[in-house]
Amino acid sequence: MNTAMIVSLLLCALPAGSMADKPKVTRTMIEAMEKSVDGKLQKLFSPDPVEVLGVQGGYINGYGAVFMSEINLAPAAGITPFHPTVSPDEIKRTHDKKVQRIAALRNSMRDMLVDSAASLDSVPADEQVALGVSLFYWTWENREGLPAQIVMHAPKKLLLQAKAGTADKGTIAFDEF
For 64, which of 39, 97, 128, 143 could close a Cys bridge (C-beta 3.0–4.6 Å)? Predict the structure, then answer.
């Protein structure tokens, strides 16, 4: 199931309420954050960047803003007619590069969450801002010690405090699957 489908299902499952109950989080705000997250992910590890396979966002009334992306931390040649096999050395280099980049990805994700809170003005302070990154792997890759997905979230008020320097970014919750 792709990210857009998941966000759509979550949005459809919300209870109906009056328009007065809903914050005014516009699609324009969400799109601006999608572009921001996409740009920041694209610039990771320059001049040897990651491949970003898309960023999707949505607002879930009563929960908050959710952004999802899929990235390849270490783009490598796949199996093609011109490259029919992957050598053990290529497998090791790709794995080592991804292991090396995971910590920096986590730190960047925390920074993206903190930066996003100020841009999402109409998201209530007690609602969450969440960022999930699914990691792309070729079938031939060694995935030992590497997660399939990293998900971080925090209440907007904590993110604003972290931006102001009155809270520690390290308190932002994250899960890896």
Answer: 128
Gap between the Cα atoms of 15 and 62, Å rounded: 10
CB 55 within 8 A of CB 39: no
Q: What are the C-alpha distances in Å from 124 to residues 6, 45, 156, 163, 172?
A: 22, 33, 7, 16, 17
Q: How many CB atoms lie within 10 A of CB 175?
A: 11
pLDDT tens digits for the chain (177 residues)?
555 545 454 555 555 544 456 668 999 999 999 999 999 999 999 889 999 999 999 999 999 999 999 999 999 777 778 878 889 999 999 999 999 999 999 999 999 999 998 899 999 999 999 999 999 999 999 999 999 999 999 999 999 999 999 999 988 989 999
> What is the distance between the alpha carbons of residues 138 and 87, in angstroms, rounded to a whole number?
14
pTM of the full structure: 0.84
List strand residue ranges (DSSP E) for 33-93, in order: 51-60, 64-72
3-state secondary structure of 45: coil
The two tokens of residue 60 are: 């879930």
**25 touches 122 (CB < 8 A):** yes
